[in-house]
Design goal:
single chain; alpha/beta; Rossmann fold; 6-stranded mixed sheet; 3-stranded antiparallel sheet; 15 helices; 9 strands; 12% strand
Length: 381
């Protein structure tokens, strides 16, 4: 990650600056990157303080982010203030002439692994490059090749951590909160005759929902199940309060498998020890086993149940409908993630899917990182 502005144009430098902030644990989203670029176009960027304040206004959401932003700004822009696009050549690309700026300009940064394609795909250099998550987010899981598995595993872990650190609407008392707790402040200052001497602080709680994950590992889900299992592993190791199950023709609890420090070890054990891995699909019977053996211990009105399946059940659809009804009655929310929903021509007409849908609170896709990241707003009560 560059620690200073090194490109010839404003947009790329702002994108690199936002990546630096993300590396320093600031929650900078792609939409905020775009807002920062637009904001820079609306202010006098030759005024260093004005430019710094403008970026701070769109890139910081919490008071504790401000010192990180300001220190990073001073470090990143210390040798070069941004330049607009007026000094562009006929092709619309910023001038690469070293004499134009009085110094040699570095070549545009190329995403890791793309060096060999740089000459063939120069247009890609003009695209916003945010982070590994944003770069991979829109790609369907079915398009990844084995060599990219480690990269997607890291990106899935990033998504899970973002979901695990989402703030709740509820507050908790704290010594260094960013909001004043008026009720506690008034009580604390009664001893001073009502004069406010001490301030009580509060901050939003981190959402830590209780989640039950049930993933289809039948043959029809082979393309997607390995990615969804990585997502389950990541959630379990970031949220903590997660129970995990897989099924094909029967249900298997895999919570303990995912307590391994290595996702690949966990996946190998599951594939080796789950007897019906990549077999047929009996969703109804598998959910019947879940309700009979596990639901009473793992599901209540504070639990979110996520079922990951394409809904292609070869069993009795009436059994699936009954078991889904039982889960919905017991759980706070039922979410069904179907990777086939990523295809705009898909319709949930299969018997199993049609039977389950009336008892689902949210029916969503799970075909790429973006669809998993979009779950954030629904993983809280």
């Amino acid at each position: 990650m560059p620690r200073k502005a090194r490109h010839a144009d404003l947009q790329r430098n702002i994108i690199d600056f936002c990546r630096l902030l993300r590396d320093r644990e600031m929650l900078v989203t792609p939409s905020e990157v775009i807002d920062a670029i637009r904001t820079a176009d609306a202010v006098d960027i030759s005024d260093r303080q004005e430019f710094k304040t403008a970026l701070r206004s769109v890139l910081t959401a919490r008071p504790e982010d401000i010192p990180i932003h300001d220190a990073s700004f001073d470090e990143f822009w210390r040798n070069r203030m941004p330049e607009r696009f007026e000094e562009q050549g006929e092709e619309g690309v910023a001038s690469q002439d070293p004499e134009a700026q009085g110094e040699e300009l570095p070549q545009p940064q190329i995403a890791e692994g793309d060096e060999s394609e740089a000459d063939e795909d120069e247009e890609g250099l003009d695209m916003p490059l945010y982070s590994p998550v944003e770069i991979l987010a829109a790609r369907d899981f079915s398009t990844f090749v084995p060599d990219e598995m480690q990269e997607i595993a890291r990106a899935i872990m990033v998504v899970a951590r973002r979901l695990a650190t989402r703030e709740s609407r509820r507050y908790r008392s704290t010594q260094r909160g960013h909001a004043i707790d008026l009720r506690r402040t008034m009580r604390r200052n009664i001893k001073y005759g009502g004069t406010v001497v001490e301030l009580a602080k509060k901050r939003r709680k981190i959402r830590k929902p209780k989640i039950v994950l049930i993933c289809d590992v039948s043959r029809s889900m082979d393309t997607y199940s390995k990615f969804l299992l990585q997502f389950i592993y990541a959630l379990q190791n970031t949220l903590g309060r997660v129970e995990s199950f897989v099924f094909s023709t029967r249900l298997t609890r895999v919570t303990d498998y995912f307590r391994s420090s290595d996702i690949y070890t966990a996946l190998d054990r599951i594939a080796r020890e789950v007897p019906d891995w990549s077999g047929g699909t009996r969703i109804g019977e598998s959910l019947r086993s879940f309700n009979a053996d596990w639901a009473l211990r793992t599901v209540n009105k504070h639990t979110i149940v996520l079922i990951m399946s394409d809904g292609l059940d070869t069993g009795d659809a009436s059994v699936l409908e009954h078991e889904m009804e039982q889960i919905q009655k017991r759980a706070a929310r039922v979410i069904w993630l179907n990777p086939l929903l990523g295809n705009e021509d898909y319709r949930p007409l299969a018997r199993g899917m049609s039977a389950a849908l009336p008892h689902v609170n949210l029916f969503a896709s799970a075909h790429n990182l973006a669809s998993l990241q979009a779950l954030g707003r629904y993983l809280a009560l």
